[in-house]
Amino acid sequence: MGTAGQDCDVLSDQELVLEIAEKNRRALEELYARFSGPIYSLAVRMLRDSGAAEEVTQDTFFNVWKRAGSYKPERGKVTAWLFSICRHRVIDEIRRRKRREQTHVHQDVELADQPADDTNDPTRFANLRMQRGMLKDALSKLRAEQRVVIELAYFGGLTHSEIASRLGQPLGTVKTRMRLGLRKLREVVGPQSREWV
């Protein structure tokens, strides 16, 4: 390692960030060496996924490279700034996962909307189509968080525990959303259709 690298070794965290703002790659490497472990540990604790945590860690330091000039020492230590960047990136990842989960759920609903192959009786076929149409319309009137748990349970075949694990939510929250969502569904579809909700 050259003199510049040795110089970076002795710089304080704040001085490293100032150097990174001047696009000093050695300074970024030194900051990474000091803090990538703790940043990764925080990400893996929050995401429970080592691959995603590694991506978050890389993204955190990429953001440091881009935004080092925005660091203000008077607002707090470099460590607090780094952990803040990491937390924001983790939140983005969690939101992305939930959006993807909802997309998968809606695709499942589309598949579930197809009538079963054994409906040779035209009246039964028509009734099933009507019921499914009403159910999809009723589901669209629910709050998003209630709709997702109901769709995962009834179209995805997941248990309450599996839904809680998949969405990263407490089991009690999932059960409450399920109960409130089903109550709302029964109100929306009316008395004539409550037996199939």
UniProtKB/TrEMBL annotation:
What keywords is this UniProt entry annotated with? Sigma factor, Transcription, Transcription regulation
Domain RNA polymerase sigma factor 70 region 4 type, residue spans: 134-185
The coiled-coil regions, if any, are none
BP term (GO), one: DNA-templated transcription initiation
Q: Which residues form the RNA polymerase sigma-70 region domain?
A: 31-100
Identify a single GO molecular function assigned to this protein. DNA binding
Q: Does the keyword Transcription apply?
A: yes
Query: What Pfam family does this protein match (any one)?
Result: Sigma70_r2
- Provide the residue span(s) of the region labelled Disordered: 102-121
Q: Which InterPro entries match?
A: RNA_pol_sigma-70-like, RNA_pol_sigma-70_dom, RNA_pol_sigma70_r2, RNA_pol_sigma70_r4_t2, RNA_pol_sigma_r2, RNA_pol_sigma_r3/r4-like, WH-like_DNA-bd_sf
Q: Which family does it belong to?
A: Belongs to the sigma-70 factor family. ECF subfamily.
Recorded protein name is ECF RNA polymerase sigma factor SigK
Record the organism: Geodia barretti
